[in-house]
Specification:
single chain; 381 residues; alpha/beta; Aspartate Aminotransferase, domain 1; Aspartate Aminotransferase, domain 2; seven-stranded mixed sheet; three-stranded antiparallel sheet; binds pyridoxal-5'-phosphate
């Protein structure tokens, strides 16, 4: 037997309270019992999203929620500005193109933030744009984009909705949906919500509902109007993922017990300790100082070391699964996830495994420096 540690930014570990809740015998979804659990979960999600907007829960992975945002807010031929700095921002742009939108893609390097000024300029050049879409926490690059600043800009355009992929933002970093005027914010179950994959949640502002009323793109399963109407009757239009929603209600209890602020503070501490640990080993962080999120820490593979071997040895020899780089960064960076059900010692364990792995691969550094730097962060509390 080998004890395993899942240190990836999705799927993430699931607490035993949540696992056990999902193992309960099946209940029917058209019952008062299920409706109570659904509505309690939606109330909890509103706290997590910091919103009084409608929150829709859809049985699909995060990408389904992303797709639904495009299908529900636009008409074919609409102009949508998408700021990208990684794989998931690029996915937003791809979805827009698939739906026949005029996508103005503001492509940034993966280790740069999406600059609010670029969005402002693109809106001036395209004043008829119907939407702006940005990924808040870009999981492929660890970069945190300033959706608060971008929200303030888009708010000046009454017919333009701001769509935010916060799939690894929610539960890791501040995401103040209402205060920051974010029209559509989405997350997925297997990230900060500490659930298995298969469920997505998203918020819809008044402005986004107006865009929905105008939208003519085809939609059926993802038709937000159906979800909105069903919610008035405390239910869902189609069979929901009953067990995942029961699990969600338990996960939300854990999160709200700690408090949303507390959850975010814990993630910020875990991220800080991870950054301190890897930099003490002489490694370099991938994300720029002005845009480092708390969901995942991407690290450059040091010169002369095989990046894929780092991930492989950590997993096979030490049981610690981290993520490699994606696309052009495959083998060039590795990513330590600390999003969701994580505590201080998960970071210490991961840094210890990383040290042993790097030593085996011939990288020179002071053994113990990484864990010691992380300990220093944790001792400060
Ligand atoms: C995981 C993730 C997605 C995609 O979610 P799936 O659940 O894999 O469909 C989208 N955006 C970001 C930022 C993610 O981290």
């Amino acid at each position: 037997m080998k004890k395993r540690y899942l240190m990836t930014p999705g799927p993430t570990p699931v607490p035993s309270e949540v696992l056990l809740a999902q193992a309960r015998p099946m209940i029917h979804h058209r019952t008062p019992d299920f409706s109570a659990i659904l509505m309690e979960s939606i109330a909890g999600l509103k706290q997590v999203f910091a919103t009084e907007n409608d929150v829709l829960v859809i049985a699909c992975s995060g990408t389904g929620a992303m797709e639904s945002a495009f299908a529900n807010c636009f008409c074919a031929g609409d102009t949508v500005i998408v700021g990208t700095n990684g794989k998931f921002g690029e996915r937003l742009a791809q979805i827009g193109r698939v739906y026949g939108l005029e996508v103005v893609e503001l492509a940034h390097e993966w280790n740069e933030v999406v600059k609010p000024d670029d969005i402002a300029r693109a809106l001036e050049e395209n004043p008829d744009a119907r939407g702006v879409a940005v990924c808040q926490s870009e999981t492929s690059s660890g970069v945190l984009n300033d959706v608060e600043a971008i929200g303030a800009i888009v708010a000046g355009y009454p017919d333009c909705v701001f769509i935010v992929d916060s799939i690894t933002g929610i539960g890791a970093v501040d995401c103040k949906t209402d205060e920051w005027e974010l029209d559509v914010v989405m997350t997925g179950s297997q990230k900060g919500l500490m659930l298995p994959p298969g469920l997505a949640a998203l918020t819809v502002s008044e402005k986004a509902w107006r865009a929905y009323e105008r939208s003519t793109l085809p939609k059926f399963y993802f038709d937000w109007g159906k979800y909105g109407k069903s919610l008035e009757k405390d239910t869902t239009p189609f069979t929901p993922s009953v067990s995942l929603i029961i699990g969600l209600s338990e996960a939300l209890k854990l999160m709200l017990d700690e408090g949303v602020e507390g959850v975010i503070a814990r993630h910020s501490r875990l991220a800080e300790a991870t950054r301190a640990g890897v930099t003490a080993l002489g490694l370099e962080l991938f994300a720029p100082p002005e845009g480092r999120g708390s969901a995942v820490t991407p690290v450059w593979v040091p010169e002369g070391v095989d990046g894929k071997a780092i991930v492989k040895i950590m997993k096979e020899k030490y049981g610690v699964t981290i993520a490699g780089g994606q696309e052009q960064y495959a083998g060039r960076i590795f990513r330590i996830g600390h999003l969701g059900y994580f505590g201080d010692f998960d970071i210490i364990t991961t840094l210890a495994a990383l040290e042993m792995t790097l030593a085996e691969l011939g990288y020179e550094f002071e053994r113990g420096a990484g864990i010691s730097a992380a300990e220093a962060v944790f001792m400060e509390g």
